[in-house]
Amino acid sequence: MKKNLFLFFLFLLFSSFLHAKVIEVGANKPMKSIKKAIALAKIDDTVLVYNGVYKEGNIVIDKKIIFIGKDYPVLDGQKKYEVLSVKADGVIVKSFKVINSGYGTLDDPCGIKVYNRKNVIIQDNILDNNFFGIYIQNGTKCIVKNNKIKAYGKQEQLIGNGIHCWKSDSIQILANTISGHRDGIYFEFVTNSMVRRNISIHNSRYGLHFMFSNDDAYISNVFKNNGAGVAVMYTHRVKMYNNYFLENWGDSAYGLLLKEITDSNIIGNHFNENTSGIHMEGITRTRIEKNVFKANGWGMNIQASCMDNVIKNNNFVGNTFDISTNGSLVLNTFNSNYWDKYEGYDLNKDGVGDVPYRPLSLFAVLTERNPSTMLLFRSFMITLLDKSEKILPSITPDNFIDKTPLMHSMSL
Amino acid sequence: MNRIIKIIFLDILKNKIVLAYTLILALLSWSSFGLEDNSAKGLLTILNVILFTVPLVSILFATIYLYNSSEFIELLLSQPIKRKKIWLSLFLGLSLSMVAAFFIGTGIPLLINAPDSVGIMMIVVGCLISVIFVALAFLGSILTRDKAKGIGIAIMIWLYFALLFDGMVLFLLFQLSDYPIEKAMVAVTALSPMDLARIQILLQLDVSAMMGYTGAIFKDFFGTSLGLIMSFMLLCLWVVIPFYISLKKFKNKDL
């Protein structure tokens, strides 16, 4: 009886395999056209595309199929069409090389675009020279994973974003590499989503840009050498852990630009060699902990509109200015950070300096008021003024203070 | 001429002050690299040495040396040697010894601890600053026969470039902050060799901050190869012009 039951299940299993058939497309196969193959396919079928160049205009996937390329077949949009449009739930797009999407500012033609769908997986693709790379419009539970997205945008207006998500929920953006687009990753109205282990470099505007995207997490990404760094705006409950913000140089280029953010955590990130490590405007109840600020022009620029933030246990090493601000109002707390410019002593050897540290130098205030004074930086006279200001603060706010500065840098 | 330079150079070496100066520079440099765990802070100390100690010692030592060797100069003048030759050899001998002291005292630790663009820029700039302030000493000491007055002038010159000039620039910057004066300010820096030197080092040392808004203006000028050549030309002019004026005066001076 048991044996019969086993055979029965085996039969069921095989019949399900038989039910979902594989349609092969290729130059040497009976089926030459991807569009025809998709038209023929039924739900849960696999369309397997062999290596070759396919110039079929706009390919629309309108049923739940598995769409797989073998040895990266090229889907060429010939600079006229959107290459791949996903208009069904549960579609998997894997291992294609998508190139040359059209250009248009009205309908934003993309390499791969998902229209109002759930559970779509876009994986292991190479996107080259598209206007927008991957666009998820009103998607839910979609995964974008291991794609290599590259474009050659010279001007901001003439190029779209690498991965663009709009009005979506529970999206996962994992381990993609993006370069040469306008924004590497762009989120607008995207909630409960995860951006992890992506590398976003040399984009003409921001490496990562999100607005109105609550409850998202950004973990272990690398943002390097983007036009203006990373911008994060009008968002609640953001979590940014262990990211690297590197070499974002230029006027109004920031490692991380924060604007109107509340209740967020920025923990364990590295900010190296940016013109401004973090620039904060209107930030509330945010924890900035265990970050490393190294060799930046300005470590943190905290505007007076920020309040109730905790800046704790960070390393500030080799920055030209550790902190700067634009007002005298200080509603944030600095605790137990390591400042390499600290000159105090530690008599009881508990690792905490006995003299409070004032991270805001006179010169940082002067340059904030009058940027041209940068000309006099490290001048002997400025150093003298700075020293006397440290002892008797008159221009810098006297409550801008770390009462428990650490004597040694933490290993972060 | 070479023989006169040699005599002066050896005379300065015999005079132990330059040796002491070398030692102090070496002590400062080695300890600033040794005490701090990151070399950036050591570089800052050396920057202050270049902007503070080097000009002061160069101008004071050269001035005093010139006054003290007035008899030697008179002796040389009685020989059939051109005045220009005498003055030039004095200048070269003094410059050479100051540059040698700077290079041995600060240059070698820099080359060992920071053998990158910052270190090399500091060595070049430090040598130039030494020579510039020797030239200024020549100009100052030719103006008056009175030794006390001459030393006073030397100290004034140093104070002016080390403190007063920057104070005036800061004042101007705030008075004229409503106007687009960034470019004009770049021109103003040409009026002080110390500012030129400092900005060249800053562009290597604080490159991240220099990419910011105003910094970028300076970087666009000083950071380009044209700007680099321009500022080194200007620094050289700061050697040539004071020395040339002093030479003119020396030629016609009734000793």
TrEMBL record, chain A:
The positions making up the signal sequence are 1-20
Q: Which UniProt keywords apply?
A: Signal
Identify this protein by name.
Nitrous oxide reductase family maturation protein NosD
> Which Pfam family is one of this chain's hits?
NosD
Q: Which InterPro entries match?
A: NosD_copper_fam (IPR026464), NosD_dom (IPR007742), Para_beta_helix_rpt-2 (IPR022441), PbH1 (IPR006626), Pectin_lyas_fold (IPR012334), Pectin_lyase_fold/virulence (IPR011050)
Residue ranges of domain Periplasmic copper-binding protein NosD beta helix in the record: 159-344
UniProtKB/TrEMBL annotation, chain B:
User: Which molecular-function annotations from GO does this UniProt entry contain?
Assistant: ABC-type transporter activity
Q: Which GO terms describe its cellular component?
A: plasma membrane
- TM segment ranges: 44-67, 87-112, 118-139, 151-174, 221-245
What's the source species for this entry? Answer: Flavobacterium soyangense
Keyword annotations: Membrane, Transmembrane, Transmembrane helix
Keyword Transmembrane annotated: yes
Protein name stated in the entry: ABC transporter permease subunit
